[in-house]
Amino acid sequence: MDADVIVVGAGPTGLMLAAELRTAGVRPLILERQPRLRETPRANGLGGQILELLRYRGMAADIRATATDPDPAPRFPFGDVHLDLTRVTDPPLRSVQLQQARLERLLEERAQALGAPVRQGHEVAEVTQDPDGVSAYVHAPDGPYRVTAAYLVGCDGSRGRVRDMAGIAFPGTTYPQVNRLAQVTLPEGATRRDNGDLDVPGAGMLRAGFTRTERGVFGFGWLTDEVLLISTTEDETTTFEDDAPMTLAELRGSVGRVLGEDLPLGKPLRLSRYQFQARHAERYREGRVLLAGDAAHQFPATGVALNAGMLDAVNLGWKLAAQVQGWAPPGLLDTYHAERRFAGERTLLHTRAQVALRRGHDPAAQALRDVFQELLGDEAPLRRTGAMVAGTDIRYPSPGDDRHPLTGAFAPDLPLDTAQGATSVADLLRPARPVLLDFADRPELREAAEGWAHRVDVRVVGTNARPADALLIRPDAHIAWAAPVGEPADTLVPALRQALAAWFGQPCEKEPRSRPATDQTLTTRTP
Question: Which of 452, 450, 443, 428 minimizes the C-alpha distance to 524?
C-alpha cells in the first residue's frame, strides 16, 4: 500500500484526522483538490466540545495565540433568539474568534510536523475498493496517478465526490434562504449613538440588532468603534458555488431589498454568503470508505459544523488506526457510524429547531420567538440549550449492560494526585492513548488490566470526591467503562475485562508496547 489511510480533503476535519492517525502510528496521505489554502471567508470562530478536546491534545496555547479573540463573551445566536451565557458560572458553551483559514494553517502545520504529507492540487477523480484495500485515481499537476491504501476517508465537504462514489445517499432539505455576512468600515458621515444604534445620512436611524421586514431580516452590530458586522437573510432559491465570492454590490442589493432603501456602506473587510441545508448521510461507512465532517452531515445553523466535523475525526482516528494495525476487536470500526451518526442526529435536532425560530414574519412566529427567549431567561433551560449547541451533552450509547451514568460521556478534566506528583485527566490523555484511572487503589483492577499494558496506561490517582472507583477512558476522551464506588471485585473484574476486550482487543502479555508517533509520551506508569 502507498499509505495506510487516504484522507480526501485538507479542511479542518481532514487535517485533524490525519494528525490523530499519525499520533496513533498510522501512515495517512492527504489529497486536496485546491492548489493552495483557500482564503475565501468561511467560519469565523470555533466553539463547543472540540475546544476542550484540543486542550487535551496540548493545542490550547496555539489556538489562543492564533485567535483574534481567545475569550469572547459567551453570547450566541440560536435561531432568532439569543443565548446569553454571561449570566452563568462555568458556561457549557465557549468559543474563540478564529478565522477558518488560520485554523487550517495551524492544523496543517501540526499534521505535517507529525509526518502526514499533504498534496495540494491533487483531485480524486475515482475511488474503487475490494476486500483487500482501496484505490484512488488522482488528477494532479504533473499528470494522473493511482494511489492505494487500506482505507479512504472522505472529508471533502458537502459537495465532495467521495460520498457519491461510495454509493452513500445524502437525503435532506435545502432551505430557500440565502444569508449574507460582511464586516465593513463605518460609512462616511455615519455616527454611533451611545446605545449602539447608528445614524446614517439619507437613511435615518438604524437600531442595533435584527430588523425583520416582510422581505427578510437585516442585522448589524459592532466589532469595533469603526467596524460594523452586517448580515441579511432573504428567501431565495438561487444556488451558489462554494468558491464564488460575494461582492459589495451584491450585499448592497440584498440590504436594499430587505430594508426597502439603499444603505451606504464603508470599505468591505470581509464578505461571505452561505445557505442552510439539513442533510445526513445514511451511513458513515461503506466497506473501506468512510465519511467525516460536512461530507457526512450538513446543519441548518451557524457555529456547529467545525465542532461536529473535528469530533468525527477524533472519534474515527484511533478506531481506524486499530483496524489498520490489526488489533481492533470485532465491530470497533462500526461504532464510529453508531456514535457519530447519533451525535449528528442530536445536532440536527437543535439546528432544525433554530430554523423554526428563524422562519415566519407573522405575529404567531414572533410569539414563538418571544416565548423561547423568555424561557432562556432561566438558568436551567439556558444551560441545557448551551450544552446541546456545544455537544457537551452527548453520551454515546453503551454496549452491553453498562449503565453507569458516566459511560459514554466525555471525561471531565479532573485534577489528579499521583505518586509522581500532580497531574490531570487532560495531561494523561495528551498522547491519545487509552488510560485506566484507579481512584480507589484497587490492585485487583490493575491486575485485571495487565494483559492490555501494551495498549492501555494504568495509573493510580487521587482526586476530591471521586466520580467512580475507576474510569477506563478511550483515546477520544470518552469514558468506555466506569466502576461504581464500592462495588465488589467479583463483579467489577469480569466487567473490566469485558470492556477492555470490547474496546481494545484481546490481551497479549508478550506483545511489546507500541509507541505513538509523537514524542509526547508518558514516562511514569503504575508498577
Answer: 428
State the Cα torsion 220-222-228-230 to the nearest 10°.
Answer: -20
Strands, DSSP E only, in 265-312? 268-274, 277-280, 285-286, 289-291, 297-298
Determine the pLDDT at residue 401.
64
The per-residue DSSP string of 46-103 comes to EESHHHHHHHHTT-HHHHHHH-SBSS--SEEEETTEEEEGGGSSS-S--EEE--HHHH
> Tell me: the pLDDT tens digits for 393-446?
999 988 766 678 999 999 999 999 999 999 999 999 999 999 999 999 999 999
127 and 266 Cβ atoms separated by less than 8 Å: no
**Alpha helical stretches, state H, 138-234:** 162-165
CA dist., res. 288 & res. 321, Å (int): 13
- Amino acid found at 487: E
Q: Residue 454 in contact with residue 511, Cβ under 8 Å?
A: yes
Burial group, residue 488, by CB count within 10 angstroms (0-12, 13-18, 19+): exposed
Helix axes 305-325, 334-358, angle to 10 degrees: 170
Q: Provide the H-helix boundaries in 272-304.
A: none
Are 263 and 249 in contact by the 8 Å Cβ rule? The answer is no
pTM over 0.70: yes
CA geometry: angle at 130 spanning 312 and 120, to 5°?
A: 50
Closest to 175 in 3D by CA, of 368, 385, 358: 358
Q: Could you give the angle at which helices 305-325 and 12-23 cross, rounded to 10 degrees?
A: 30
- Give residue 287's Cα distance to chain centre: 24
Alpha carbon distance 348, 49 (integer Å)? 16
For the cut 80, the answer to whether the pLDDT of residue 367 exceeds it is yes
Structure letter (DSSP) for residue 295: G
Cell of 3: 499509505
**Do 520 and 431 form a contact (C-beta atoms < 8 A)?**
yes
Per-residue pLDDT reduced to its tens digit, 248-291:
999 999 999 999 888 888 899 888 888 889 999 999 999 999 99
The closest alpha carbon to 273, from 214, 232, 215, 226, belongs to 232
Q: Is 465 left (phi over 0), alpha (psi -120 to 50) or beta?
A: left
The neighbouring-strand residues paired with 7 are 30, 153
Q: Please determine, for residue 148, whether its predicted confidence score (pLDDT) is greater than 50.
A: yes
User: Is residue 269 exposed (0-12), middle (13-18) or buried (19+ Cβ within 10 Å)?
Assistant: middle
At residue 449's C-alpha, the angle toward residues 445 and 453, to 5°, is: 140
Edge-to-edge strands, sheet with 470-473: 457-460, 435-438, 470-473, 479-483
Asked if 493 contacts 446 with a C-beta cutoff of 8 angstroms, the reply is no
What cell numbers appear for 12 in the block?
479542518
Angular region, 204: left φ>0, alpha ψ -120 to 50, beta rest: left
Q: Count of CB atoms within 10 A of residue 246's CB?
A: 21
Are the beta carbons of 68 and 23 closer than 8 angstroms?
no
